[in-house]
Every structure is written in C-alpha cells, then in structure tokens.
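hiii so um. not sure if this is the right channel but i have a protein structure encoded as tokens and i wanna go backwards to a sequence. like what aa goes where. can anyone help
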C-alpha cells in the first residue's frame, strides 16, 4: 500500500517515517493565499479548522494527475495543512523575522490552538475512487518567562519562519512550550491518530502501510 504525500513539509515527512511509513513526496505547488481567497469569495470567511482542511484538500487534489516516474499515482494521496489560532487571530507561516518576532512577543505566556487539516484520496488503480478528510486540534501553552533575547536567538535560526505559528515542538522551539493538550503530532503538522482513522474508513489498517525497515 503506497502513500503519496502532497506536501514538502520536512516535519510531516519525519512523522510518517518515524511511524514506519516512507511516503512518495509529490509537491503540490498550490498557491495557498489564492486558494483561501477563492474559497472565502465563495463561502465567506473561513475558520481556522475549515481553512486547513480546505487547503489540505486542494493540495491533495492538485497532484492526482501527476506522473511519478512516468506512471500515474497508484495508492493513497495525503494533503495536509496547519494554522495556529491565538487571541482570535489565525496565523500560518510568518515568512519574515519581523512578523515572527511580533507573534512571539504577543504569544509568550498565552495558550493557543494548533489546527492540522488532512485530506486523503483513494487513488488506487490510478484514478480517484473516494476521498475523506478531517481536522485535528491541540492546544499549546508558551512559557511566561521567555526573554526577548531568547526570542531573537530563536528567530535568528530561521526555523520559526517556515512553520505555522512560528514555533515547533519537535526541534528548537520545544523548550519554550510548557504544555500541550491533545495529540502532540497534530502540533508537528500531521495527526497520526487522525490519519489512521481516515484509513480505516477505506478498511485499510495502519500496519499495511509500514514499508520502512526497523533498526
């Protein structure tokens, strides 16, 4: 059973590998702001939960006709997206140091919600047979005593510029997090528990996806 990952996120790839799955990475090249703008023009403002599932779906659907090594995709396609909501504002990747610093100054000592959207397409046989999706959420609490110098040092690494909410829990940002409520892998960018439930909708059990040798 092959899984195709419509994402270039190193964190999602690492999560799947740690869970025994070596996916085939197929970048979607989706213009995310344009996709959100188009959806909001049709449906109105999107909540964080709806937005991440919508983007996950757009990414997965964008690669259904992609050829891999000259062949059509034969397996399952997974799209994913994440966003962080704190104090009523929804944040994706900050992209610039200035935006990242502004967010960190505002969110230290507070609790926010990290949403991860999933969209799974059954593309066995080289054609879309069915699809399903879900959004998972976990709350994250930041330490109150994070200093400005620590924030500046963290931003200087470049790591927070590339992730939703400008933080990680599985890398350099972990020491600044005091509590997580919910599935920790959701905060990394992909809820493994949610993904397992989605596969069960297709009567596919998780062990059938294992294709990495154990050390």
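sure thing!! here u go:
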């Amino acid at each position: 059973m092959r899984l195709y990952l419509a994402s270039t996120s190193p964190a999602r790839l690492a999560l799947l590998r740690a869970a025994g799955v070596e996916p085939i990475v197929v970048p979607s090249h989706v213009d995310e702001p344009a996709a959100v703008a188009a959806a909001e023009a049709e449906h109105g403002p999107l909540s964080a939960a709806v937005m991440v599932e919508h983007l996950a779906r757009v990414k997965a659907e964008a690669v259904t006709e992609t050829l891999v090594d000259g062949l059509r995709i034969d397996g399952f396609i997974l799209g994913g997206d994440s966003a962080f909501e704190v104090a009523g504002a929804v944040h994706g990747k900050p992209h610039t140091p200035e935006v990242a610093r502004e967010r960190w100054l505002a969110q230290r000592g507070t609790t926010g919600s990290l949403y991860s959207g999933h969209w799974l397409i059954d593309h066995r046989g080289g054609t879309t047979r069915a699809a399903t999706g879900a959004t998972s959420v976990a709350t994250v609490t930041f330490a109150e005593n994070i200093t400005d110098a620590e924030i500046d040092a963290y931003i200087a690494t470049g790591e927070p510029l590339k992730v939703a909410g400008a933080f990680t829990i599985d890398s350099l940002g972990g020491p600044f997090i005091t509590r997580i409520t919910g599935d920790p892998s959701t905060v990394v960018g992909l809820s493994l528990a949610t993904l397992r439930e989605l596969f069960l909708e297709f009567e596919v059990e998780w062990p059938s996806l294992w294709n990495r040798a154990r050390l």
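oh and The radius of gyration is 18 Å.
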